[in-house]
Amino acid sequence: MGFNIVLSSPSGAGKTTITKKISQKYPNIKISISHTTRKPRSNEIDGVDYHFVSKEKFEKLIKENNFYEHAKIFDNYYGTSKKSVNKLHDENYDVVFDIDWQGTKQLSQFKELNLIKIFILPPDKKELKKRLINRNQDNNQIVEKRLKQYENDIQHWFDYDYVVINNDLESCFSQIEKIIKSHKKEKMSFI
Ligand code: 5GP
Predict the structure, then answer these.
(1) Ligand 1, residues 70, 98, 110: which to mutate, most atoms within 8 A of Cβ?
(2) Under a CB-based contact definition with an 8 Å cutoff, are residues 97 and 32 in contact?
(3) Atom of ligand 1 nearest to the CA of 79
(4) 120 by DSSP, 3-state: which?
(5) What contacts 24+ positions apart, CB below 8 Å, involve 53-60?
(6) pLDDT tens, position by position, 31-60
């Protein structure tokens, strides 16, 4: 197996954009598509952004031990399916996970995954609020909820190997590229 990158951040810090950018630039790195019980946003596609499933289906998958990790975030379940990640590894892809700190803790227990854990932070709370409002995905109530969650989320930075501040998308991305390259030089045939 190659390696796996975990990107976590408080909601709105730019992690999803960076995850997509990594997989676009490096075709050998695939995004792990999570399962969730959250309703799709208008720009999201089932099977591409997430596997959108019912609460009942998700709970059945938990019972059957189908997840590497799962967590409840903002009243919804999110989880990483063992089957889809293993399939990517079998096809010799490296994997990038866009998951929260709870999931990272669980995933860390699978040492064979060789995780590189990166925590992305927004420059500050004011900037985060601006980004959450500008991206126009959620109503005011949800934005407020995500801002409250921020205080809790950022306390988990010490569970990660690296903390990168997303002041500017390009420089944040280039720092993450450097981290990946330095870690896995011997296996970086794709760079
Ligand atoms: P959103 O609803 O904005 O897409 O995601 C909310 C949070 O759930 C984000 O912090 C995202 O990283 C996290 N998340 C997405 N998929 C998973 C997953 O499979 N497991 C865990 N633990 N968190 C996830």
Answers:
(1) 98
(2) yes
(3) 19
(4) strand
(5) none
(6) 999 999 999 999 999 999 999 999 999 999
Task: Say how many Å lie between the CA of residue 174 and the centre of ligand 1.
Answer: 23
The strands making up 4-8's β-sheet, listed across from edge to edge, are 29-31, 94-98, 4-8, 115-121, 162-165
How many angstroms separate the Cα of 81 from the Cα of each of 33, 68, 134? 8, 6, 31
Alpha-carbon distances of 71 from 34, 62, 68, rounded to whole Å: 11, 10, 11
Q: Identify the DSSP state of 38.
A: S
**Rounded to the nearest whole angstrom, what is the distance from the C-alpha of residue 38 to the centroid of ligand 1?**
10
SS3 110: coil
**Mean pLDDT value of segment 170-190:** 80
Residue 102 neighbours by CB distance under 10 Å? 18
